[in-house]
Specification:
Layout (H helix, E strand, L loop, with lengths): L2 H19 L2 E3 L2 E4 L2 E4 H10 L1 H19 E4 L2 E4 L4 E12 L23 H5 L2 H8 L2 H9 L15 E5 L10 E8 L2 H25 L8 E7 L5 E4 L4 H43 L2 E3 L6 E3 L6 H7 L2 H11 L1
């Protein structure tokens, strides 16, 4: 065999193996490996039980919608809420803005001035972040009607505060306050309200400590809010599960009813076939020669064993 013919044979064999291993659909029958799926048969079953299918699909659609929305006397709402966030940014400073100066001024005789070292604020970021989410701030928001018991269901306020990491590996001097809510507007409103409450609480404590304004640390608001961000969309996992489960249950009911109907028809068919067999004529050849249907050839060998030659000849003429 030449090399070209041998190569063609290998290519043909590889193509045949690929076709056999792949999914093949012939006449509505899908073949996957050694298994066959008769799509036409499944379609016929669903068509015969179209009433069950229609009712099942309708119930599935209704349950799917109800798994995504909630209908109550107060109106229609979503079962799974969205979570939006917004953020305000602060810079810790003081009157005189030492972080804006190239060199801190010196007093008479070379003594230091009242301006603090900006790097000292980095050690206070965590203190101010804790104060921004303290119980005092939460009470102010509750008193102003900007928070309710539902917002505090988890035990923690729906806003957090933390230092903003430095991009040059320096101690941070910036703090961010982030609020979360079910809508973009509420997230923005809560961010502004939490910022105002934090500043009010801080100023009240500084005044109670009798700290002069020039000596106070002032969280300067450099960004009151940003564009709201959707951080968690509504979950559709339950909705998809209900939809697929409803379709599978509908198909299962249709096939179960079809199998029960087949079982009921099976005894009737068996009885009819038995009656047809009993109605067929039979001819007995001798008392000890068994039975044979009309028109069949008699068992000559068995007849010659026990019958006389004359009887055998007579039976042969009868069947000729």
């Amino acid at each position: 065999m030449c090399c070209v013919c041998f190569d063609d044979t290998l290519v043909h064999a590889e193509k045949s193996a690929t076709i056999c291993s792949a999914e093949v659909a012939i006449g509505g029958i899908f073949k996957v490996g050694g298994n066959e799926i008769d799509i036409a048969l499944y379609t016929d079953v669903l068509r015969r039980h179209r009433t069950v299918v229609r009712v099942g699909v309708a119930l599935t659609v209704v349950l799917t919608v109800l798994s995504f929305v909630r209908i109550s006397p107060s109106g229609i709402g979503y079962r799974s809420p969205e979570i939006w966030s917004n953020q305000a940014t602060f810079v810790l400073t003081q009157e005189g803005s030492p972080e804006l100066r190239a060199v801190l001024p010196r007093g008479p005789g070379g003594s230091s001035t009242k301006l603090g070292n900006p790097f000292r604020y980095a050690s206070l970021i965590d203190v101010y972040a804790t104060l921004a989410t303290s119980d005092a701030v939460v009470k102010v928001l509750l008193r102003r009607g900007l928070l309710n018991a539902k917002d505090l269901r988890g035990g923690a306020p729906p806003f957090t505060a933390a230092a903003v990491p430095s991009t040059i590996n320096q101690p941070p001097q910036t703090m961010a306050l982030t609020a979360k809510a079910e809508t973009a507007g509420k997230a923005t409103k809560l961010t502004l309200a939490a910022t105002r409450a934090f500043l009010d609480v801080l100023h009240a404590r500084q005044a109670a400590a009798k700290i002069q304004e020039k000596d106070r640390i002032q969280p300067l608001v450099v960004r009151s809010s940003e564009a709201p961000k959707l951080i968690r969309p509504r979950s559709k996992a339950l909705t998809m599960l209900v939809f697929l489960g409803g379709l599978i249950a509908t198909a299962a009911v249709a096939f179960t009813r079809d199998n029960l109907a087949r079982r009921k028809r099976a005894p009737e068919l068996t009885t009819v076939e038995s009656l047809d067999e009993l109605a067929e004529p039979e001819l007995s050849i001798g008392a000890n020669h068994g039975r044979s249907t009309l028109g069949s050839v008699p068992d000559v060998d068995s007849a010659t064993v026990r019958d006389t030659p004359g009887e055998v000849a007579q039976q042969a003429r009868r069947w000729s």
